[in-house]
Each structure stands twice: as structure tokens, then as C-alpha cells.
Design a protein that fits this description.
Elements: E1 3-13, E2 36-49, E3 52-53, E4 58-65, E5 74-81, H1 86-96, H2 102-107, E6 111-120, E7 122-124, E8 131-134, E9 138-144, E10 154-156, E11 165-177, E12 180-182, E13 186-195
Parallel strand pairs: 5-6
Antiparallel strand pairs: 1-2, 1-13, 2-3, 2-4, 4-5, 7-8, 8-9, 9-11, 10-11, 11-12, 11-13
Length: 206
């Protein structure tokens, strides 16, 4: 089967700014703990798995990285917007679990425990201060870091990333899902494109 999805994402995690997962560094939160707890939500502007149209569907990926990314043993859980049909939800679950190969297939080698798939309302806004709401689980608001010229700070060509270039900043709010509870600190936003043909430069699960 072939698939592709593209749109925009917002990620927030417990790591102290700046999160080291992009360069496979040991994670550290503001309390000195060496783990990364996070949530990344994706809006699918356009997408499909063979004949299944995935356009307009949102989903969220929750993670616990107990060490640097390539050490593996990740805990991951997925929430799919409750507005998606059962067919769309099944297609997305197959993609993000890695069963359909491509970008997420590359990541699945690091999965230690799949915490399952849940359904909930997901609202992801774009713009200057993107916000995320995953019903009863997560509330995030993103604020970009800014350089001397006032423009947002960006990371380009990272070892692990959801996009070739992404804006980094801070997130505020709270998150509690799949037994993974964290206070967000770091954040990032960008557009993304993933597909079944993508292998090199696969996204992180942050």
C-alpha cells in the first residue's frame, strides 16, 4: 500500500529549552530528569492511504523517551480525532504504528511499548501563537523563540525532525494521557510531509 500525509504540526514536551532529541542527545527536563515526555499533534491538510482520503483529519502522538532516541524502548500512544470515520482512523493507526512502512516504519524500530489508540476531539490552530487541545488530555500554547531581528528561531537539517526546518520555542499548558503526565516546556511547529516512500530523515516521535 502507498500513503502520504501533509499539513502542519505542533509539538510540546517536558525537555528544557532546547530539546536535545533532534540531535540524539540525552533529554533533560528543568528538574534534571533524563527523559522526554511529549505530545505532537498533526493536522492532515491532504493525505491518503491508497483509496482512503485522510484530508482534514487530526491525530496526536504521545511519547516517553527514557533516554536518547536511538537507545529505543520508547513508549508511544496515539489519539485520533473523533470526527474521523472508522476507516480513516484505521488507516491512520496503520500508518503511525509503522505497519505501512515509510517514515513511521523507520521509527517503529525504536518502539518498546505501544500504549494503544484512543479517540477524542482534537483542535489544532495555526498562526502566530498556535494552540492545541486534545479533549480531556492536553492543552498546549506555543510561543516562538526570537532572534536579534525579531524573527522566529529555526532549526534546519536536524538528525531527527518532523520537517527539514522547524520553528522552536516554548509551550505552556498541561498534558495527561496514557499514564504519561508532564508540564510542557519546549515546543516546535512547522509544516510537514510524510509518505510511504520516505525513509531517510524520518520524523522523531517527540
Amino acid at each position: 500500500m502507498t500513503w502520504s500525509i501533509s499539513g502542519n504540526y505542533l509539538a510540546g514536551c517536558s525537555c528544557a529549552v532546547v530539546c536535545g532529541c533532534a540531535v540524539d542527545a540525552m533529554p533533560h527536563d528543568p528538574q534534571g530528569r533524563e527523559e522526554c515526555l511529549g505530545c505532537t499533534a498533526f493536522h492532515v491538510a491532504e493525505g491518503n492511504l491508497d483509496e482512503v482520503d485522510l484530508s482534514g483529519v487530526d491525530f496526536a502522538l504521545y511519547n516517553q523517551f527514557p533516554s536518547h532516541l536511538t537507545a529505543g524502548d520508547w513508549k508511544v500512544g496515539f489519539v485520533i480525532d473523533d470526527g474521523a470515520s472508522d476507516t480513516q482512523a484505521d488507516a491512520l493507526e496503520r500508518i503511525v504504528s509503522g505497519r505501512e512502512g515509510g517514515a513511521f516504519g523507520e521509527l517503529s524500530q525504536f518502539f518498546g511499548e505501544n500504549l494503544g489508540v484512543e479517540r477524542a476531539s482534537i483542535t489544532l490552530t495555526d498562526g502566530e501563537k498556535p494552540r492545541l487541545s486534545v479533549g480531556g488530555r492536553t492543552q498546549l500554547e506555543f510561543e516562538p523563540l526570537r532572534g536579534p531581528d525579531g524573527g522566529p528561531t529555526k532549526v534546519k537539517n536536524a538528525m531527527f525532525g518532523f520537517a527539514p526546518e522547524f520553528t522552536i520555542g516554548t509551550t505552556t499548558g498541561s498534558s495527561q494521557a496514557f499514564g504519561l503526565t508532564f508540564e510542557p516546556t519546549y515546543g516546535e511547529v512547522s509544516d510537514y510531509t510524510f509518505s510511504s516512500e520516505q525513509a531517510e530523515g524520518a520524523p522523531t516521535g517527540r
